[in-house]
């Protein structure tokens, strides 16, 4: 066991944990004032629900030896998970710490997903959905990519979760959003407090350094490269979004800057430890531009109801990043991988990435549909008329984020 690596991953775990409350604030500022607490609760409750789903079964299904499709029950209820190392998945850090680090990835995935259904879904059915989603969607895909499953054996790579975290959550969020009300309340309401979103965005940005750098599980040259790439990508994504926004609308908005930052971070996540600095900038620039067009044009054209654009940023950004990883991956950066298409590799590097992306999209969407259909047999999924009119904060949680006089002013503006 290496104590330096253990302390390093301990810090990174705390940074990744910070991303979920950060995203709850980011989303909270984007909704109407009467629904801000419900939106925050959807992310914060993910910490509670995911903890139990992960501890009981999720971690074992993700990282138990099992087969190429699913892990076994070796770690059921955290059996054999403690301070000792595990040769195959945590050779120089405690297995318990590795389990917690991975749990934070699962938690932020659920928080991302909640953005698609903000202000639109009943709270208790949402919590039930989250528990089942962790076990039936996230855990199998995590095993395919990081637990020795078929995607790993195929040769497709995902450094820190472009496929596992962002594609699964983005696609699942979109499917769930469409199911609870395609075309309902499609009118775009202005964010009620962009300063709250800014504060949340800053927390997510900081936490992302733990997300990507910690995925090396040690602070070596690959971790250093991923750190620099992550810094570059956040700025490049923001720059790409802002340039195209100014070109199309003659404005450079705060929410555009933050959205571009997120798009750049999402796009670099699968590639952070596999590409050089120039490639990281290009991947993030492309990611920022593609996410901008997905949200401002494709979404408008197709009229799908992705409330806070979780699919537009995380789903699209994850797909772009995963595919471009196969284009830009380099043995000079990481000698554990093959060269990508741009550096003398063959088209296979890109094709295996595309296959992994396509299967993940189909699997996540289909299983999400089944889970939501089953829950829908016992409960309505969409918020009812009273909840929509009076606000989910008051009706569901019995509280308001603001004093009543200030709330009325905010609601009139919203």
From TrEMBL:
Pfam families, alphabetized: Ammonium_transp (PF00909)
Membrane topology: Multi-pass membrane protein
Keywords: Ammonia transport, Membrane, Transmembrane, Transmembrane helix, Transport
UniProt subcellular location: Cell membrane; Membrane
Gene Ontology CC entries for this record: plasma membrane
The Ammonium transporter AmtB-like domain, residue ranges: 8-402
Main localization category: membrane
Origin: domain of life: Bacteria
Membrane-spanning segments: 6-31, 43-63, 93-114, 126-147, 159-182, 194-211, 223-247, 254-274, 280-298, 310-330, 350-372
GO terms for MF: ammonium channel activity
UniProt keyword rRNA processing, yes or no: no
Similarity comment text for this entry: Belongs to the ammonia transporter channel (TC 1.A.11.2) family.
PANTHER family: AMMONIUM TRANSPORTER MEP2
Name by which UniProt lists this protein: Ammonium transporter
Gene designation per UniProt: amt
């Amino acid at each position: 066991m290496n104590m330096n690596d253990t302390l390093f991953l301990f810090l990174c775990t705390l940074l990744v944990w910070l991303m979920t409350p950060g995203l709850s604030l980011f989303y909270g500022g984007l909704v109407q004032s009467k629904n801000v607490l419900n939106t925050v609760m959807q992310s914060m409750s993910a910490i509670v629900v995911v903890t139990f789903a992960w501890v009981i079964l999720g971690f074992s299904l993700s990282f138990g030896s099992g087969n190429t499709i699913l892990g076994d029950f070796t770690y059921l209820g955290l059996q054999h998970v403690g301070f000792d190392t595990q040769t195959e998945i945590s050779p120089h850090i405690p297995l318990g710490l590795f389990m917690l680090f991975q749990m934070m990835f699962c938690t932020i995935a659920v928080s991302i997903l909640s953005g698609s259904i903000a202000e639109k879904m009943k709270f208790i059915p949402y919590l039930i959905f989250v528990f089942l989603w962790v076990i039936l969607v996230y855990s199998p895909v995590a095993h395919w990519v990081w637990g020795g499953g078929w995607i790993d054996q195929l040769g497709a790579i995902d450094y820190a979760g472009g496929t596992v975290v962002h594609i699964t959550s983005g696609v699942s969020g979109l499917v769930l959003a469409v199911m609870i009300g395609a075309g309902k309340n499609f009118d775009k309401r202005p964010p009620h407090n962009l300063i709250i979103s800014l504060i949340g965005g800053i927390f997510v940005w900081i936490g992302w350094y733990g997300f990507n750098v910690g995925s090396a599980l040690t602070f070596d040259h690959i971790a250093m490269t991923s750190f620099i790439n992550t810094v570059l990508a956040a700025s490049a994504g923001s720059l790409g979004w802002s340039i195209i926004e100014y070109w199309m609308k003659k404005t450079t908005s705060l929410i555009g800057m933050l959205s571009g930052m997120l798009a750049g971070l999402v796009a670099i996540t699968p590639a952070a430890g596999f590409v050089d600095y120039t490639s990281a900038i290009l991947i993030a620039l492309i990611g920022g531009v593609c996410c901008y067009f997905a949200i401002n044009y494709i979404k408008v054209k197709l009229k799908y109801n992705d409330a806070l654009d979780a699919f537009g940023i995380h789903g699209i950004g994850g797909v772009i990043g995963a595919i471009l990883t196969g284009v830009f991956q380099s043995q000079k950066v990481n000698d554990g991988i093959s060269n990508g298409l741009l550096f003398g590799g063959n088209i296979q590097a890109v094709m295996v990435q595309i296959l992994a992306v396509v299967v993940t999209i189909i699997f996540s969407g289909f299983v999400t549909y089944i889970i939501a259909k089953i829950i829908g047999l016992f409960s309505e999924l969409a918020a009812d008329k009273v909840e929509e009119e009076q606000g989910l904060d008051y009706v569901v949680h019995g509280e308001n984020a603001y004093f009543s006089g200030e709330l009325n002013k905010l609601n009139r503006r919203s």
